[in-house]
Specification:
single chain; alpha/beta; Rossmann fold; 2 domains; 5-stranded parallel β-sheet; about 10% strand; globular; binds cytidine-5'-monophosphate
């Protein structure tokens, strides 16, 4: 059986990794999994069932029931769900359960794109392509702010900026699988790069790896 070709994309929220990952998956005809949605779905299931967010045994049980096929970005994108997700994401038993499901997904042929915080370091450390997509906290907060305003909503830039920094802090400083670039990851700083430029940079890295693999 031919192995799956895995593209691991990590980085903080609002750095552009979601758009990039979806674009890459489409370009290469690969399956895509936004692993953040698996943490979000677990958190939402707990909230909907009126269960606590600080009980690891209960949260692990929920994590084991998450169906990767039914993850809906629109339903799970709410801010409070993201906050709750980053709280349960510190729990090793929750991570173990979700990482098992993510690894199973990564094996789909002909290839997969997984995006998250720990794909290149923990979930798929042997992936032939690892990208770490980042941007300054100011730029990321500005993008999120513009997105909300663009949809006709109201937003407070300072509150968003504080939120971006708090989420980074929680993700980078947790003991289990903290967010960090794998030693062999290619860094893509999109602070001053358009999504098209980031896509082109990613494409040349992927094409080079694909031809090494051929
Ligand atoms: O990327 P997204 O904002 O949807 O992720 C929500 C939260 O899930 C993150 O803040 C992070 O705490 C957690 N997460 C994680 N590992 C991943 C993906 C997401 O810990 N691979």
């Amino acid at each position: 059986m031919t192995d799956s070709f895995i593209i691991a994309i990590d980085g903080p929220a609002a750095a552009g990794k979601g758009t990039l990952s979806r674009g890459i998956a489409e370009q290469y005809g690969f399956h895509h999994l936004d692993t953040g949605l698996t943490y979000r779905a677990t958190a939402k299931a707990l909230i909907d069932a009126g269960l606590p967010l600080d009980d690891e045994t209960v949260a692990e049980k929920m994590a084991r029931e998450v169906e990767l096929a039914g993850l809906d970005r629109n339903i799970l994108s709410r801010h409070e769900i993201g906050e709750a997700a980053s709280k349960i994401a510190v729990m090793p038993a929750v991570r173990r359960a979700l990482v098992e499901a993510q690894r199973r997904f990564s094996k789909k042929v002909p290839g997969t794109v997984l995006d998250g915080r720990d794909i290149g370091t923990v979930v798929c450390p042997a992936a032939p392509v690892k990208l770490y997509v980042t941007a300054s906290p100011e730029v990321r907060a500005r993008r999120r702010y513009d997105e909300i305003i663009g949809k006709g909503g109201t937003a407070d830039f300072d509150a968003i900026f504080e939120d971006v920094k708090r989420r980074d802090d929680r993700d980078m400083n947790r003991a289990d699988s903290p967010m960090k670039p794998a030693v062999d990851a290619h860094l893509l700083d999109t602070s001053e790069m358009s999504i098209e430029a980031a896509f082109q940079a990613a494409q040349s890295i992927i094409d080079a790896a694909l031809s090494r693999n051929a």
